[in-house]
Amino acid sequence: MKTLANPKNKDEILQRLRAIGRASQRRWGEMSAHQMICHLSDAFRSGMGEEDASPVRSWIPRKLFRWIALGFPLPWPHGVRAPREWDQKIAGTPPGKFEDDLGELRRLLDRFTRQPRDFEWATHPYFGRMSDAEWLRLGYRHLDHHLRQFGA
User: Which of 78, 102, 103 is CA-nearest to residue 21?
Assistant: First the structure.
């Protein structure tokens, strides 16, 4: 399973991020490429405890939802609603200058994967408390999902 703990997997993600531009067209969903970059940054900030994200209720128990999202070998479904703090149309970080926001995402990705950590993992709004391995797997899956959304 791919994870941001593996430097090769992280390099793959960084290479795919280079393919994203302000004019990249989505294959599904409502976000622009720029909004997606800000959405991913908000998710990383939240995971590292820099921003709050309200818990999200689901009919699927947290442990089962986490197991499916992290361990099931199929792409994530489209249309799962993000916490309001990660939604750029509601309370997420509004896009600024594209190059600056993309640079910020890369900086956050580096901090998220750096050892030793200089932060404590927060509680995930859908999945609850998670281990290092789970956070790094989730980080890969979330990035992969949105990069596929924009054809990268």
Answer: 102
Written as one letter, the residue type at 138 is L
**Which residues are within 8 A (CB) of 139 and not within 5 positions of it... i.e. 6 or more apart?**
3, 4, 44, 47, 109, 112, 113
The rounded distance, in Å, linking the Cα atoms of 36 and 21 is 11
- Within 79-129, where are the H helices? 98-113
Q: At what angle do helices 98-113 and 7-18 cross, to 10 degrees?
A: 180
Sorted by where each begins, the domain ranges of the chain are: 7-149
**What is the predicted pLDDT for the residue at 17?**
97
Q: How far apart are CA 137 and CA 71, in angstroms?
A: 9
- CATH code of the domain occupying 7-149: 1.20.120
Q: Which two tokens stand for residue 39?
A: 């959405």
Q: How far is CA 140 from CA 31, 95, 119, 144, in A?
A: 19, 22, 19, 6
Q: Supply the pTM of this predicted model.
A: 0.94
Report the chain (152 residues): mean pLDDT per 10 consecutive residues: 97 97 95 97 97 84 89 88 86 94 98 96 94 97 97 94
